[in-house]
Amino acid sequence: MTLDLGQELKDDFPILSHKVRGVSDLVYLDSAATSQKPKVVIAAESNFYTSTNATVHRSGHELGELASAAYEAARENIARFVGIEPGNLIFTKNATEGINLVAYAVLNATLLAKSGDKRYNKLAIGAEDSIVITEMEHHANIVPWQHLAQVTGARLEYLKVDESGRLDIDESKFSKSTKIVAITHQSNVLGSVTDVAKIVRFANKVGAMVVLDACQSVPHFNVDFKLLGVSAAAWSGHKMLGPTGVGCLYLNDELLGELPPFLLGGNMIENVTYESSTFRSDNAKFEAGTMNIAQVVGLSAAVDYLKNVGMNVIHEHVRELTGAALKGMLSMPGIRILGPTDLTDREGLVSFEVDGVHPHDVSQFLDSKGVAVRAGHHCAWPLHRKLGAVASSRASFYLYNTKEDVDVFLAALDQIRDYFKVA
Ligand SMILES: Cc1ncc(COP(=O)(O)O)c(C=O)c1O
After folding, report:
1. Does 329 share its domain with 281?
2. Residues near ligand 1 (Cβ within 6 A)
3. Which of 201, 379, 381, 389 is catalytic?
4. Residue 248 appears among annotated catalytic residues
5. Tell me, what DSSP letter sits at residue 161?
6. Domain span at 111
């Protein structure tokens, strides 16, 4: 039984003692948007600025050395957490930038191949090729691929979401023309979890790269990108107790070596003359300019915190809370859950509609009781259209939530239709 976990950890998160509008205890159910930060993460970032601050990989003075060592130690810690080598981890500002990095690098490869640089022929994409994504992607994993398809003429294809809210991995969408398969590991609307191994198997058969949006998975359960066999994976630090402003991108050895850079400037070069430049061949190729050093150090502290609690313990706790929320919601009239209604292949968030009440009114009513949920299309507008919902409300759970939080949420939810006189 892990239902006491949230109670045990609450004091580690100063913001959770916030009184909503000066009155109600905060019940924070918006961790899928961004998680709250434990004291150790806030302290790690602050300590870096107090004792170690300098830019990295440039300055020969002591602080420069200390900052570089802290940055690279953080890289090692974060990389090991997801089963990869530190050399395959690139820091970005968020998951969105990581996915854009891959899409723009492929576009650059296409342009360079067209200009006659044969090194990029393999990566180049054109009208005869296809990119496969899914109907349940966040805009961050749709729009960059739409753009790549638009400017190269490639076809964009969608794997469908079935009636239950799970992905239908239809092998016929994978063909010799498929160059890229970009999928979410866990939907930020439906909560459903993708069978990545199956996707990788189908993609490998046709020689396509697999780009994983791991934003909602890395914070919630053990993930090993090498074991999964994906080519690339992007996620955000701020959803896993880390600071805002830092994201991570995994590139396997092949992509790390073959992709041309996305951003050009300081640190990523090998040599620069007035006429031309050559680039680093390691992960520094993708880290142009002064990086988000303090945030990377803060994210490493977040990883330590998660490891201390234990990812299996967190996973189990969040599943229990999600199960309790689903059970309570299913017993209420006028609630429509988007996504699977049982815990098979689905994780810690529940998006829902309240019959006759706009999601913004739902979230405002819940806020008046201290409960913070998200309302809107959650950056998944096409999916909402497919589901026939203008928008939805979403409650998402994390390690610091308690069973009482779920009870407060359910009790408030139960009053909404009466309050708006639609019951
Ligand atoms: C599944 C998924 N992908 C991508 C993103 C984008 O993350 P960020 O805004 O941190 O880049 C999010 C954030 O909500 C998400 O939930």
Report:
1. no
2. 33, 94-96, 138, 140-141, 184, 188, 213, 215-216, 236, 379
3. 379
4. no
5. B
6. 44-307
**In terms of domains, do 63 and 14 share one?**
no
Residues 6+ apart with CB under 8 A from 69: none
In whole angstroms, give the CA distance from residue 201 to residue 197. Answer: 6
Specify the pLDDT at position 58: 87
Q: What's the pLDDT tens digit per position in 208-244?
A: 999 999 999 999 999 999 999 999 999 999 999 999 9
Does residue 322 carry a pLDDT above 50?
Answer: yes
| Per-residue pLDDT reduced to its tens digit, 363-412 | 999 999 999 999 999 999 999 999 999 999 999 999 999 999 999 999 99
Q: What is the pLDDT of residue 1?
A: 45
Q: What is the pTM assigned to this prediction?
A: 0.97
Are 156 and 130 a contacting pair, CB within 8 Å?
yes
Atom of ligand 1 nearest to the CA of 93: 11
Residues 240 and 362 in one domain: no
pLDDT given at position 17: 96
Please report which residue ranges of 115-224 form alpha helices under DSSP H.
143-152, 196-206
Token pair belonging to 381:
């507008």
Closest CA to 233 of 71, 101, 121, 76: 101
Is residue 269 domain-shared with residue 325, that is, in the same domain? no
Distance of CA 141 to CAs 98, 157, 210, 275, 340, Å? 10, 13, 12, 36, 22
